[in-house]
Amino acid sequence: MNRTPKFRWGVIGPGEIATGFAEAMKWVDDGEIVAVASRSAERAEAFGDRFGIPARYGDYASLAADPDVDVVYVATPQSRHCQDTLDLLRAGKHVLCEKPFAMDADEARKMAEEARNRGLFLMEAIWSRFLPAYRSLAEVLAEGRIGDPLLVEADFGFRMPVRPDHRLFDPALGGGALLDLGIYPVQLCSLVLGEVERVTTDGVIGSTGVDEQVAALLRHSGGGLGVVKAAIRTGMACTARISGTDGWIDLPAFMHCPDALTVTTRAGAEHIDGSYEGNGLRFEIAEVHRCLTRSLTESPVITLDETIALATTLDAIRAGIE
Ligand SMILES: NC(=O)c1ccc[n+]([C@@H]2O[C@H](COP(=O)([O-])OP(=O)(O)OC[C@H]3O[C@@H](n4cnc5c(N)ncnc54)[C@H](OP(=O)(O)O)[C@@H]3O)[C@@H](O)[C@H]2O)c1
Fold first, then answer.
1. Looking at the chain, which terminus has fewer C-beta neighbours within 10 angstroms, N or C?
2. What are the pocket residues of ligand 1 if the criterion is a CB atom closer than 6 Å to any ligand atom?
């Protein structure tokens, strides 16, 4: 019997999202995690035991040197994404790098250039884009169901206790609302309205030095407006509305991983189901496999140019609150 060839994954930074990734891999036929690396051998062993991963490394460089690894999921804090990704690309690995891709647009450009020069696959893990609800959203927009989109309103925020030891409150690890959560509303604006021309913004820096609340107004070159908010000390609806000339689309909470959407036009409101089984990271994994199978070095769904543009927008927002 022929077995489907499997893409052999490595994972670095076995924390919270890496755990979700390993759960998601169970829902993907043509991939398996063959190696995990942690800064600590004990943590690598524990993750390996939990998910049945054969190779466990107590440092990231050993995983990069493992010839049995094809593609690596970078699940470290954003402060490390650039260096970790560069190290892996230089070792010849394809890379799926968690969001936010980098600390700033300069880093993002460096990472993209390295991947392009080496002909390796690289993608920012904006998992939202691959979820069934976002696929439906793209279709509804392409079909012109709401006419021309004019306005995107989106927010993502919750109230966390201040924990200076948590990465979200640590400036050195790229903490703060904007980079961690703001990326989601911003990527939605980019998906719907395209390039950003001008940014107006304000925010609140908390006691640990990170932005705890941020609000930004994005003026897109096509004339559309994006109104985005993010917070780690303020509960928000975490929803999105896209208004067009002929109707609007609502994304329920959480706007970065909705399981449905509602399209409202003169004909009435249509509820579109976007529910799925398993962990939603499975869909971005499937996209990486689709691209690798077709020898694509970028996904057309979230290109490196768009990732650089997103980082540029985040830089512009940050400049307004610092
Ligand atoms: N797509 C999503 O929905 C989603 C959700 C959450 C987070 N993320 C992104 O994924 C990345 C990781 O987030 P997370 O919530 O999984 O964080 P986490 O639980 O803290 O895990 C990060 C891991 O990175 C490693 N690491 C390397 N250097 C580190 C350092 N200096 N400080 C702390 N940890 C370090 C640690 O593993 P070892 O020390 O064992 O190597 C740690 O377990 C972030 O960029 C975040 O924005 C994405």
1. N
2. 13-18, 38-40, 43, 75-78, 80, 98-99, 125, 127, 167, 173, 180
